[in-house]
Write a structure and sequence with these properties.
This is SPARK domain-containing protein. The chain is mainly alpha-helical. The chain is about 40% helix and about 5% strand. It folds into two domains: about 190 residues, no CATH class; about 160 residues, no CATH class. A hairpin with a 4-residue loop joins strand 7 and strand 8. It has a two-stranded parallel sheet with strand order 1-4. The chain has a two-stranded antiparallel ribbon with strand order 2-3. The chain contains 17 helices and eight strands.
Amino acid sequence: MDCVKTATRLKGSWFHWFLHFAIWFSSFKNVLAMETQPKDIHTSSASLLANPPKTGIFEPIQISPAIIPNYSFPSGSLPPMYPTYPNTYDPVLTGRCPVNFSEISSIMEKTASDCNQQLAPVVGNVVCCPQFSSLLHIFQGYYSTNSDNLVLQNAVADDCFKDIVSILASKGANSSIPSICSTKSSNLTGGSCPVKDITTFEKSVNTSKLLEACSTVDSLKECCRPICQPVIMEAALKISGMQSSINDNKNIFGLSNHVDVLSDCKGVVYSWMARQLPHDSADKAFRRLSACKVNKVCPLDLRQPSEVVEACRNIAAPSPSCCSSLNAYIASIQRQMLITNRQAIICATLFGSMLQKGGVMTNIYELCDVDLKDFSLQVAYGQQGCLLGSLPSDLVFDNSTGFSFTCDLSDNIAAPWPSSSSVTSMSLCAPEMSLPALPTSHNFGNPGCCHGSGVVPFVSILSIFVFSSLLF
């Protein structure tokens, strides 16, 4: 305080000039610091497609279509991360689907974007297929608006399904969506569900309860404290005819087709919901319900890690041979798809349990610096793993920047090594319904690890902005 009092007593322009100089000099140093270039810590073959950003750690990188070289690839197809833009054209329709598709054009546009021709194979599980499934439910409900049926007849369903795929492809979507998402025209027919008309449905189901529970689905609570899902299951059980069997304690689980019947009846319930709700509201509800299902399992194909087990079984300290074998295995799964942060936790735990069953009891994730992001597709010129958020997300197309989506690149979170009981009892629902506490991030690597020494908060893929986001 004495110093402050002394300063306030100083008079004249000299002191004010000195004070302005000090402030200006401090700002000048800050400018110099921002101009410092990050070191190039990695070189990837993908850098041949476009020069890696030089100042990407400060702001998003914009890649203009004009500066992207038009390379030809011997394989005849572009790699997933190559900047592309949708090639639109007029679709050829069957002419036998009596629907005005313009009434659901916004959902069709969104689905075409989420199932982009190049990206659909790598975002199918998390983005494309949930959105395509939502579109089919909405179409089914829209088709039945002026009739008493909640489903389509087989012949019409086949024609309409073909038209839907054709329209999506004409808007830049992948024409192989049905195979990517394992979806058929029979999904529009109600299959083996015994109730397919609205009159019988509304007599059998407590529709007020269904609308109240599912009109608005809470993104954070539904997956851990479900409100809508049990009501949908209750409705599906009632129209499937299984409810009475359950009440009579009959062994319905001995029936070979009970799963298919229940699944088909859930589709009928979704159709009724889509008929009652605005298209956007129905889409939000269906996507949020899909997110709960998607984030319960690991979608990766994890082959038996025999080579990793052999190299890592008896180690207790960092081992170049063990880490090399582990990195080679993880590199093979990194080419599969983009996954969510919750899926990464499940995949890391599942893979760790496979290693433990083979006799690897040491936490080799820690010894070899394995992060959660290592279980997902690598972007940013192969330098950075991308985990999508656990909440529903979409690909966004912009005429000047191409497609964009958000990666969860908040930090290098260490992959969790499973405890003896974590596989059977693991739950991602903490009491406050958030992700459980995860291992802290690490900044230093161990021998044999393949990571770089820095973090790139912003990366570009497919003429894409990938922005750093929160865990959700």
